[in-house]
Write a structure and sequence with these properties.
This protein is mostly beta strands. The protein has no helices and 40 strands.
Amino acid sequence: MKRITLLALLGLICLSFSSSAQILTKKSYQFDSEPVAGLKSNSITDIFIVNDKVIFLGTGKGLARTEDGGQTWVTYTDKHGIGKGGVSAIAVKDSVVWVATAFDSVILEQHEAIGGGVSYSTDLGKTWTHLPQPMPTPNWTIVNNVIYDIAIIDSTVWVAAFGGGLMKSSDMGRTWLVRPPDGYNFNPDEYLSHRVFSLLAIGDTLWVGTAGGINVSYDGGETWPTEMLFNHQHGEAPISGNFVVALDVQKLNGQNIIWAATINAEDPDEFRAVSKTADGGRTWATYLPGKFTYNFAFDGEAVYAATDSGLWKSPDGGQNWDVFPQIEDSDSPEKMYASEFYGVAITPQPNHALWVGSSDGLAVSLDDGLNWNIMRAFVKTGVEGEPRVYAYPNPFTPMRFNQIGNDGFVRFQFNTINATHARIRIFDFAMELITTIDGGSWSANTDASVAWNCRDDDGNLLANGVYFYQLELSGDGKYWGKLIIVD
């Protein structure tokens, strides 16, 4: 199933590929250092539930793991056995966990996505072995060779890569074989079906989502029947689009119902939506037209979709849909400022918790969204030489970060010593007052934050430049900082 979003690669980019031998031997690296405590990133790209206690998070700064249902977290980075960058894919089978990472690099003055390699654990994520990025041939380009998904069938691990195609390893990553999901020699320049984005393993059946539709193998990738190619151009009720960025299965009443995030590729008749089949792909129904969906979760007949325009739920298998309102913390003034949701998952009974991830943190609800607990990564203020207040992200781009509605929100992080009321004043470079933000009342010894949409009292978006902010805490004092706004 699809477990990542790297937005720069979601278009059909034309790349130059080379091909020759199809086996590559890798060297492994063992890491022994302990992970760091807590969440280290507010960008939550994936949520993988093992059971009601063990949960993995793909984040922008490594892999987070909990053993107590989310009460405490540790994060693994490239210093602890995970590859460089953010997590781009996760797969778990029994006690074996595979993780892929990716990072941004500047090549010839262009920002390019680079695969950070794969890592595996045989003890459910406690210790890790890291391997270099799998590639179809030793001389393959590293640019845009990012792994978007991983699937495990028996002892074989499969990876889906935009630049590297569909690859498999049956020896824990020491060697990799490229296996296009059809009968053609690997050539992603010519065949869109060789550009792979999503995987789903159900027993020995492997579903593969590509830029050219969905291919299915019933024998663990040995053969690919031509009648099991599903795209927008074939069938009376086809998928909505050939660019398949997510696959998942809803197990209901003994059935395997396949859900796919299907995006328009080349045909002007294609469109963004989610596509569902209950008959093995012969016919498809489409829902949520116009939405770009990143992930699915299921609870009986109910379906949850994490999309580019909110978190959606259907209580009846897709017939009716509603979007969740803005997520607000039940025990504090905290809110989640995000319209794009990347991850969604549900823990099994007895907890039965709904988890969602966005670029603005992680949230969990025990009552299907009526009440939420928001979790975020932040540097504590007022300790170990840190200031009493800081703004983040900083520099800040209002039209890029923490988007909800038509606004982007910067956050001011601070701590309280006693019960207090917070007020934040914004000044321009000439120290003229721009606006005053009511930061609300806070209890003593609290880590707090206040969000602001970078608009003045007349509703105008602030121009690029340097601004100063003053945090006033009643009964405590005034604290200053600097904020840079860039477009």
